[in-house]
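ok so I'm stuck.
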Amino acid sequence: MAEEGKPVVYPATEAAEVLDTVAPPTVLTIAGSDPSGGAGIQADLATIAAFGCHGAAAVTALTVQDTRNVHGFRVTPDDELRQQVATVLADIPVAAVKVGMLGSADNARAVADLLAEHPEIPAVVDPVLVAQGGGDLAQEDLAGVLQGTLFPRATVLTPNEHEAHALTGGETVPEAVADELLREGAHFVLLKGGHRHPEEEVVTDRLFSFGQEEASFSHHRLPDRGYHGSGCTLSTAIACALADGREVVESVRTGIDFTFRALRAAYTPGHGQAVPNRLFHWHSWEQED
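replied:
not stuck anymore, here's the structure
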C-alpha cells in the first residue's frame, strides 16, 4: 500500500524490449462531441478501437446532450475545422474517413473541399440532422448544402429514414429515395430498415448504387430500446472495413454485422436510451458463430 502523499510506482522489468509494431490503418472521424459517450466522436473512437484501427478525430461541434436527447450545441468555426482535418491529413496516411455531425453549411463546404483534395480516401458520410431523441443537430440550411457539396465526395451514404426523407423532399419509396440521393453524386446509398415496418420481425437494410440494388442484408429485429449512437456505430464500422481494404458490399456487410452485435450487447448507463456496446468482445468478433 502506498504511503500517504507518495505516488504509486509500478515495477518495470529489467530487460524491457520495445516492440516493433506496425501502425494499423488510420480512420479519421469528423463529427461532434457527445459528453455522454454514447454517440459522436466518442462512439466513433470506440468503434475504431474495436476494429484494431488507429483513430484520429476532428471535432465539428460541442454538444450538450445525454442519453435522452440533445439540449444544445455550438458549432466549431469552419476555419478551425479545416485546420484540424488538414493537419491530420498532412501528417498521417488516412485509410478512410467517416463524416458525421457537421452542424453548419460552412463546415459541410470545408469538409467537401478537403475530401476533394484526397479523392483516393474512401469516405462514409452519415448525414446527421436530428438526434435519436428528436433534438436538432444541424442548422437549417445544412441539408441543401450537403446535397450540393459533400454527397459527391461520399463513397457510402448512410442516412436514417428521417434524414433520407428530409433530403429527398419527403420521398418514401426506397428505390426513389436512393435514386435521388445517388443523383447528388454518392457512389452508394445504404437505406437502413430499422424504422420501416416496425411490426415485422426481420429488419432489411438495402444497399444501392446508381440504377440498381447492389445487396440487401437481413437480421432479426431487436427490442426497441431507443439506441443512442447506433448510426454513428454503423457508419464508422463501415469506414473501418473500407480502411482494411475490403470492397464496399463486404464493408457494409461487416458494418451491419458489427452494429447488430453491439446493439444486442447494449447497456443503459443513464436514464435514457441504451448505448451500443462497441467493445462487446475482446477476441475477434468476426470468428463468432
